Amino acid sequence: MLRRSSDKIWSKIVKNEGKLMKTKTGNVFSYRITKYKTSIMPIWHFQKPPKFPKAAPTRYISKNLIKNAFDVFPTMGPTELKKLLNLYSMDTAATHLWGILNDSRIYKK
Question: What count of other Cβ atoms lies within 10 Å of the Cβ of residue 60?
Answer without folding.
Answer: 14
